[in-house]
Design brief:
The chain is an alpha+beta fold. The chain contains ten helices and ten strands. It folds into three domains: about 140 residues, Jelly Rolls, CATH 2.60.120; about 50 residues, Arc Repressor Mutant, subunit A, CATH 1.10.10; about 55 residues, Arc Repressor Mutant, subunit A (Orthogonal Bundle).
Length: about 280
């Protein structure tokens, strides 16, 4: 029995395959291809040589490289494939040009993290998809580094950049700001924006925006607006998204929070005066 799941995570195409004994004829791609082997061993043919990629291995193919191979007949195999245009990936990572120097890396932890990001691409929650895209950009930077490509070092002015990002996120909280837009506004790569922001704040830009969104929602709920009105005002997709993220942040649903606020208000003791 085999299964194939396919999705897009931002500009990156992702497929997750579970099968037995699948083989591929020799072929090539226009994009950079990153293969993440999770279960089983793949026999790889690449540019007139062969090698084995076992569980925890990451295989790297440059555009136009002829490849082939697969798993032995009847052998279980689970792998994730990521496809990214070379120019796009180079831009996202702040590189002028990108070409993998190594075809095989053994990195089980990184492979598992890439698989988890790919799984997030299948989520119906826009925030989960967005956070998975953020994670994937940083993980691709690590993959590229392992392949022998030197990434640009972080520029100075991290605090200034973080302040600019926070200002942009706060100003458009109701509709959100795409990572590409943040990079374009600041003249920086997505990788640099993510890495610097996370280093300075401990959060990705999307996570920071979400905590601000839930904080503003709390204030609006306290003022008496309905949960549906609050969800629309601060940029949640709908009331159910507000409920889920508000509860994750504060341990209580918006409705119960409003009930608690009203209860406190009605039970507040009135000041007494001595006669």
């Amino acid at each position: 029995m085999s299964s194939l799941h396919h999705a897009w995570l931002g500009p990156y195409e992702i497929s997750s395959t579970t099968c037995t004994g699948l083989t591929f004829a020799r072929h090539s791609h226009d994009e950079c291809v990153i293969g993440v082997n999770l279960i089983g061993a793949e026999q790889v043919w690449l540019d007139r040589r062969t090698f084995e990629a076992g569980p925890g291995s990451i295989t790297l193919y440059n555009p136009g490289q002829i490849q082939g191979g697969g798993a032995a007949e009847g052998a279980p195999w689970h792998f994730v494939s990521l496809y990214a245009g070379a120019d796009r990936l180079a831009t996202d990572l702040g590189l002028a040009h990108l070409e993998f120097d190594r075809a095989l890396c053994f990195a089980p932890e990184l492979a598992a993290q890439l698989a988890q990001a790919a799984k997030g691409a299948l989520s119906a929650d826009p925030l989960v998809c967005g956070l998975s895209e953020d994670a994937l950009v940083l993980l691709l930077g690590e993959v590229v580094r392992l392949s022998g490509v030197r990434l640009p070092s972080s520029a100075s002015g991290g605090s200034w950049m973080v302040a600019q990002v926070q200002e942009l996120l706060a100003a458009q909280l109701h509709q959100g700001v795409a990572l590409d837009t943040l990079g374009d506004e600041l003249g920086l790569s997505k990788f640099h924006v993510l890495r610097t922001f996370q280093k300075e704040t401990g959060l990705s830009p999307r996570q920071w925006a979400m905590q601000l969104r839930t904080r503003r929602a709390k204030g609006l709920l306290r003022s008496g607006l309905s949960a549906a009105e609050v969800a629309h005002e601060v940029g949640f997709a709908d009331q159910s998204h507000l409920n889920r993220h508000f509860r994750a942040a504060y341990g209580i649903t918006p409705g119960r929070y409003q009930s608690a606020i009203r209860s406190k208000t009605t039970q507040r003791p009135q000041q007494q005066t001595d006669l």
